[in-house]
Amino acid sequence: MTKPTVEIVRPRLVLATTLLPDGDAGERALARALSGGDVASVLIDPAGRGDAAFQDLAERLVPLAQDAGAAAIIVDDTRCAGRVKADGLHVRGGDLEALGEAIARFAPRQIVGASGFATRHEALEAGERMPDYILFGEIGAEAGDAADAADLALASWWADIVELPVILAGGASLDTLEDAANSGAEFILLSRAVFGVQGQEAAAVAAANAVFDAVLRNGAEGSAVA
């Protein structure tokens, strides 16, 4: 599980649907975001919905994400994940038992990821179960403009020593995205920074990808100078 070398990482974007409304409006907002550039995956968040409402949302969003080349990952709801033919399941809450059960049930046919681990020890215990990724931070619950400092530190530590991919929850503003992008995390999760202003989703995704491109470009230039 340990990385053999340190390498320059150009992160990819992950979107959380937490802020999306139901129905056509949510579908259109995600479609605009996906049109803006590279998106690795979409975490489809119940965000307080009941089972029926969430399944209706997922039925709309899963094929939309998949048609755009992004993995559609259902948060917490195993039955919904199967019914809508999602690409994977995300287990939050730091529950190692639930993570183990999800891996036994879904892997390797589907992606299984997890979050809710607040310490290095907890994260390493989760990593021993070999999920497809670990996420540091909350899904769609940005407390500030920048990534949480503790999450940023954990993601940087993990990216340095562990081979399993890491997703870092970014902040609510694209103005502070560079710090998260330089963490070494393979993926950066955004929600409010993309979906916070209706109609601007495509531009936000394009801007995020421009930051990620700059991270790779600046890292390559720094290596060449060294």
Report on this structure.
With 226 residues, this protein is an alpha/beta fold. Helices cover 45% and strands 15% of the residues. An eight-stranded parallel barrel has the order 1-2-3-4-5-6-7-8, surrounded by five helices. Helix 1 (23-34) packs parallel to helix 9 (201-225). The longest helix is centred in the last third of the chain and has 25 residues, at 201-225. The protein starts with 11 loop residues before the first strand and ends with a helix. The mean pLDDT is 93.
Elements, N to C (H/E): EHEHEHEHEHEHEHEHH
Helix content: 40-55%
Categorize the overall geometry.
globular
Q: Cα-atom Rg, whole angstroms?
A: 17 Å
Across the major sheet, the strand order is 1-2-3-4-5-6-7-8
Find the count of extended strands (DSSP E, 2+ residues).
Answer: 8
What would you call the structural class?
alpha/beta
Provide the β-strand percentage band.
Answer: 15-25%
Give the biggest beta sheet: 8 strands, parallel, barrel
Uncertain parts: none
Count of DSSP helices? 9
N- to C-terminal distance: 28 Å
**Average pLDDT figure:** 93
